[in-house]
Amino acid sequence: MKHSTRWLVAVSAIAMSALGTQSAHAAGTSAGTTITNTVTVDYKVGTISQTAKTASNSFKVDRKVNVLVETQDSATVQVTPGQAQVATKFKVTNLSNTTLDFALTAAQLSGTTAKHGGTDNFDVTISGIYVDTNNSGVFDSGDQAVTYLDELAADGNKIVFIVANVPLNLNTGDVAGVTLKATGFEGGGTGSQGSALSETTNADPMAVETVFGDAAGVSDGARDAAHSDGDDYTVLAAALSVAKTSRVVSDPVNGTTSPKAIPGAVIEYCIAVSNGSGSATANTVTVTDPVPANMTYDSTFGIKINGSVASGVCSGGSAGGGYASNTVSGSLSNLTAGDTKTLYFRAVID
Prior knowledge:
- The protein is mostly beta strands and 350 residues long.
- The protein has two domains: 63-235, Immunoglobulin-like (Sandwich); 240-349, Immunoglobulin-like (Sandwich), CATH 2.60.40.
- It is built from two helices and 27 strands.
- It has helices at 3-10, 12-19; strands at 34-41, 44-45, 48-49, 53-60, 63-65, 67-71, 77-79, 86-94, 100-108, 125-131, 144-145, 148-152, 157-165, 175-186, 195-196, 210-212, 226-235, 240-250, 266-275, 285-290, 295-297, 303-310, 313-315, 318-319, 322-324, 327-332, 340-349.
- Strands 18, 19, 21, 22, 23, 24 and 27 form a seven-stranded antiparallel sheet that branches. Strands 7, 9, 12, 14, 15 and 17 form a six-stranded mixed sheet that branches.
- Strand 2 and strand 3 (48-49) form a beta hairpin.
């Protein structure tokens, strides 16, 4: 073991304590650099200066492998059920003192606390890992799907996205946690992933040794030539509920005074659609309601939409919707959190 390696071992306790708080900083002198120093000894014999004696020592700088993966999302990525191609954002920095390839792996959490809080309780479908090819800082069609970062220079970094599709039938507050791990590889040349790295201990001071100096990540250990960090998706969904009531408006015998549901009676159907508080806005809300058998749609009254409801009785609103194929339909305005809108119409008992 050469002198430089022994010094590393001597201060290993200090170095390991620093691993837990590493940050992106200069990688230092490049691996393979030859460092030489020469000592000069001057002397005299009697009063006469003699030719100085010199001695030199040389060694090569070893290769320190270190990588840092950091989420770039300061808060969870908000998604809606069924949303496609939504990205979490990471930065991968090569803190090594040499150019390396870095294999990229995306994984799901399983029931544990996510990066930004909340407990992981569903999985997204990961469609790929993309590098920010056009340096826009956001995931877009210009970005390239990759499985590794090719020839990332010392002190170099790349923005990387985990891109996923969100399933349907989720509730507000559901969380999916993901992790990105970057693992160092060597060689391979441009356009080809290199081979796996391993630590070395050589006796030759002119040989370049490999030392792993990475900190533990969220899904990997310290000094394993890899690093990882987490991010998460949190659902903000609409929480729609529907209530349907009916009332007898009039009948042919009693008129509007205590009317009964007898043939010829006019029945008003009230459909109320509500969105729960703290939910996402629901848009393109369409109500479709077939008129029951033994009843005839009352075209004179028509259809009223975007009204209000009290005690099961609809009121207000404006004319809208349509009737076709014995079916009433209509579109409601956007339902914000805590909002209720109605559609109501009338039909006559045959």
